[in-house]
Amino acid sequence: SASVSDLSLLISPFVALLLDIMIVAGLQKLAKRKGPYDINPGLLDYLTMDTYAFPAGHASRAAMLSKFFLNHLVLAIPLRILLVLWALCVGFSRVMIGRHHITDVLSGFVFGYLQFRLVELIWMSSNTCQMLISIW
């Protein structure tokens, strides 16, 4: 059976991903920066809210997830290297297919790392939440 801390560890990346989707979509709507090629977005792009380029959402989520796994899983050095390479490939593949400028991807990596830090900073275990509620 999963312990409370294990459950907390499983929930936190999903909370971080939802936070990322909302923040990136908001920033993209504010910046309204188009990708390098003037391609009209398709129906799927509208459904996934992937119509603007800055910041790159795929890059922010890849950076956030890789940082989460690097912090919370005990991985051998080759797996750690592969995880970082995976995140870099996700981000730079968006440049190669013409959806983002390099600065969009780099800013996506930075936003993903900052969001990871924010979730790690404010995330409390279930035991801590119960203790705070009982004090009140």
From TrEMBL:
Top-rank taxon, per record: Eukaryota
GO MF, one example: sphingosine-1-phosphate phosphatase activity
Keyword Signal attached: no
Keywords, ordered alphabetically: Membrane, Transmembrane, Transmembrane helix
CC terms in the record's Gene Ontology section: nuclear envelope
Domain Phosphatidic acid phosphatase type 2/haloperoxidase: 9-120
Membrane-spanning residues: 6-27, 68-93
Entry keyword annotation includes Ribosomal protein: no
PANTHER family, A to Z: INACTIVE PHOSPHOLIPID PHOSPHATASE 7, SPHINGOSINE-1-PHOSPHATE PHOSPHOHYDROLASE
Protein name: Putative lipid phosphate phosphatase PPAPDC3
Annotated source species: Fulmarus glacialis
